[in-house]
């Protein structure tokens, strides 16, 4: 009996120890799995950003890239991936992060400077009270985002010139591009989206979108795992653009129901056949007879040479 009494606690201790070992082993396994998943995700984003940069000649030797940082998941991810690519890039380029403080009530001014100091990136905080202008100029009941974005772009592009930035990097991703394509078709009567690289209308800035090939879901997951200090964009109290929201939901639904559809749609944006559309500026439909005559003459020449 005595033995049993003294032995029992040891059995308990051994069992507890075994359970603890099991738990710590499975925790370690989970950790390793999570790490593997994170590495895979990071690699995929790096690969896609690197490919977009090469495909569109986005960054060249000596470029000073101004990274527009709003404090949202997309711009944090863009900065992080560009920083990691910069370390092994075949060309030498520099990065400067710029945030526009639009003077929205409640904007947490300390968040971005603290983050950027911590990671050691050169940065500027540009202060422009676009918030008051937007509130004053937008009619009651209308959404403020269009004017707000226009003013933001104007301020940022002007500042890029001031600091000698040769490229302005924006954090739009694949879904942003597809949403814009549909919005332009549905409401603008034009077949256009957001290009991965663009010369601004005044010719002063070259804009690049390094996340053009990246899925929004990957960016959201990366941002979550990196625990970026996100600043919401709706501090101004604006409703999100309703039409964009509707198109976004449509794409999310399609992605769930028809895997691969978004990939194909994005591929279509990169694979345009002007002769199969109806834009007379892009394709000379009127001159088809002349083209036919030229082709006929060329065929006859070849036959005669044989
Ligand atoms: S939600 Fe507010 S801050 Fe964001 S783009 Fe719209 S108006 Fe501007």
From TrEMBL:
GO biological process: one example: tRNA thio-modification
Gene Ontology CC annotation, any one: cytoplasm
Something else known: The thiolation reaction likely consists of two steps: a first activation step by ATP to form an adenylated intermediate of the target base of tRNA, and a second nucleophilic substitution step of the sulfur (S) atom supplied by the hydrosulfide attached to the Fe-S cluster.
Co-factor remark: Binds 1 [4Fe-4S] cluster per subunit. The cluster is chelated by three Cys residues, the fourth Fe has a free coordination site that may bind a sulfur atom transferred from the persulfide of IscS.
CDD domains, A to Z: TtcA-like
Family classification: Belongs to the TtcA family.
Binding locations of [4Fe-4S] cluster: 145, 148, 236
Annotated PANTHER family: AMINOTRAN_5 DOMAIN-CONTAINING PROTEIN, SULFURTRANSFERASE-RELATED
Chain span(s) of sequence motif PP-loop motif: 70-75
NCBIfam families in UniProt: PRK10696.1 (NF007972)
Keywords for the protein's UniProt record, in alphabetical order: 4Fe-4S, ATP-binding, Cytoplasm, Iron, Iron-sulfur, Magnesium, Metal-binding, Nucleotide-binding, RNA-binding, Transferase, tRNA processing, tRNA-binding
Protein name in UniProt: tRNA-cytidine(32) 2-sulfurtransferase
Quaternary structure (record): Homodimer.
Required co-factors: Mg(2+); [4Fe-4S] cluster
Source species, domain of life: Bacteria
Function of the protein: Catalyzes the ATP-dependent 2-thiolation of cytidine in position 32 of tRNA, to form 2-thiocytidine (s(2)C32). The sulfur atoms are provided by the cysteine/cysteine desulfurase (IscS) system.
Keyword Metal-binding: yes
GO molecular function ontology, one term from the record: magnesium ion binding
Record pathway: tRNA modification
Domain tRNA(Ile)-lysidine/2-thiocytidine synthase N-terminal: residue ranges: 65-224
Stored Pfam families: ATP_bind_3
Enzyme Commission code: 2.8.1.-
